[in-house]
Amino acid sequence: MNDFLQFMTEPLALRSLWACAVIGFSNGFVSATVLLRRSSLQIGTLSCALLPGIALAILLFGLVPLIILPGAILAGLLVGLGSLFVSRTSRLDHDTALSILHTTAFALGYIILIRIGLQQKVDDWLFGNITGMGNRDLWVAYITGAVAVLTLTVLQRPLLIYLFDPRGAASVGIPVRAFSYGLFALIILVLVSSLQAVGAFLTLGLMVAPAATVYLLTDRAEWLFWGGGLIGAGGSVAAFCLSYPLGWHPGATIIVILGVLFLLAYLFSPKYGLFRRR
Amino acid sequence: MVEPDHICWGGEHRHACSHTLDVRDLYATYGKTDALRGISFSTHCGHTLALIGPNGAGKSTLINILAGLIRPDRGSVLWNGTSPDTCRREFAYLPQRTEVDLRFPLTVRDLVSMGRYPMLGPWRSPGPHDTGIVNRALKALDLEPLQHRQIGQLSGGQLQRALLARAVAQEAHVLLLDEPFTGLDEPGTASLAELLRNLAAEGRLIIASHHNLQNAADIFDRTLLLHREQIAFGPTAEVLCPQNIQRAFSTTAR
To answer: Which of chain A's residues have a Cβ under 8 Å away from the Cβ of B95?
Structure first.
């Protein structure tokens, strides 16, 4: 216990705790839009598709922290729009095209990362390395988190109308195309900022589970955002504190804790739980 | 007799029963095919207008143009002599019930309150005036006891009433409905028909795509029969004569 308390007072641990809180909150907040758009699976494939963009950016420009952001966004866009293009110009449906493109992109990214001699970093990209986050990474997480939360809060009213009824929204003058692209960009931005904490494989959990948990507890769309943020932040901080004494991988522990919270809501939600009082 | 500004509860706009919708020589393409060729008609508030034609006749395209969702290639839509783009809030588009995401975390009251968006914009918080109008809309469509229900817990008819209440709260003058009678049983059809007639009698213009030739005359007093081009427009009983129906629904119609 003393070990643990001592560890927690170290700057490294404090910084990681902050990272957990900030990344957990912004991911949880954004997860509301992922849930309401019903695009969880697409986001999942997207998070893996970011890898080659990151690898390519590192290959071209070296390991500069900020350079991975444009690379990741570019890869996400290429795979996202490319799959749309393939499905429109062939007899394949969108999901099939997306599955092929994202696994190909992922494999390519893996090869590049190994070839440029970053074997030991591959684990970090796939599963995250929250204690390895530097001050600059933390700032990137702060800023993307702030941008995401602010944008979604300021535009919440038209955003909800757009998500619920895109055509009705367009008919009262809401710029639905801008909303659609903007949301896509925002989701990629937050994905990338959380990549270092939980990695490409696990980030989907952080991006979906918080709002899904709140969704089982309430009928109010606004609560998905703040509730998702609180669950994301609380779950991540708690998981980080647990991971040290248990000796578990911190990123994986975050996802497990969020999964457990979801399971609890699934089973015991007073309104929609499996064991609700009828 | 309908009061002059009956449907504009906000009072920001004097309503005249003679508000007219003029559609002049409308052409539109959808993908590579002509969706509409030379549609022209004129009608005004107080009417219920059915758009009737076979699948792919351009009914949805016309509704989308009136809702401002797509641009016509040629021709014009005039609302009281001006472009509807200057008064989008006077047009309400109602999605088909089957397109509504029933699991969306939204109560009936939240849904109806969305109708206030054109007046409030993204940031202004609703005042007592808006709350009052939402309350009246809920009351007018008999939704008060259901207002705190999540929309997935409504029957098809109740959901349709909630969508209509949103349009009423928007103080819309023109209600554009996509196949509202699809999937309703006979009592549901009768009660929705009565609702639409009442909403029109209060001074609104109801425009709906429709496919049932048998009950069209009971529900709508005006009909536009089309198959890409306009077959006929006028009182429903006159438009739906056997010759016109033959022309619209025969496979040779271009």
So the answer is: 165, 167-168
Can you tell me the distance from the alpha carbon of A109 to that of A245, in angstroms, rounded to the nearest whole number? 34
The pLDDT value given to residue B205: 92
Q: Supply A160's token pair.
A: 């909800």
Q: Within a 10 A sphere around the Cβ of B235, how many other Cβ atoms?
A: 13
Residue A63 vs residues A51, A57, A118, A126: alpha-carbon distances, Å: 14, 8, 10, 17
Structure tokens belonging to residue B63:
């509704």
Tokens of A85: 């293009």
Domain at B20-249: CATH code: 3.40.50.300
In which residue are the tokens 């308390």 written? A5
This prediction has a pTM of 0.86
Highest mean pLDDT range out of A65-74, B60-69, B240-249?
A: B60-69
pLDDT in tens, B136-181: 999 999 999 999 999 999 988 899 999 999 999 999 999 999 999 9
Angle at A259 between CA A255 and CA A262, to 5 degrees: 140
Chain A hits for B104, CB-CB cut-off 8 Å, are 36, 163-164, 221
CB A98 within 8 A of CB A88: no
ipTM value: 0.87
> What is the average pLDDT score of chain B?
86
pLDDT-derived band of residue B224, with 50, 70 and 90 as boundaries?
very high
**Domain topology for A9-266:** ABC transporter involved in vitamin B12 uptake, BtuC (1.10.3470)
On whether the CB atoms of residues B178 and B95 are closer than 8 A, the answer is yes
pLDDT of residue A129: 82
| Residue, of B135 and A191, whose pLDDT is higher | B135
Tell me whether strands B174-177 and B91-94 are parallel, antiparallel or unpaired.
Answer: parallel
For residue B119, give how far its alpha carbon lies from the nearest alpha carbon of chain A (Å): 10
Instruction: Give me the residue spans of the domains in chain A.
Output: 9-266
Give residue limits of the domains in chain B: 20-249
Residues of A within 8 A of B107 (CB-CB) are 219-220
Q: Is B186 exposed, middle or buried (0-12, 13-18, 19+ CB in 10 A)?
A: exposed
**Paired tokens of B15:** 């309503």
Query: Is the CA virtual torsion A164, A169, A174, A177 positive or negative?
Result: positive
Provide the CA B6 distance to its chain's centre, in angstroms.
18
A-B C-beta contacts closer than 8 Å: 70
Task: Concatenate the DSSP letters of all residues of A23-34 into one string.
Answer: HHHHHHHHHHHH
DSSP B144: G
pLDDT tens across A22-57, in order?
999 999 999 999 999 877 777 777 777 888 888 888
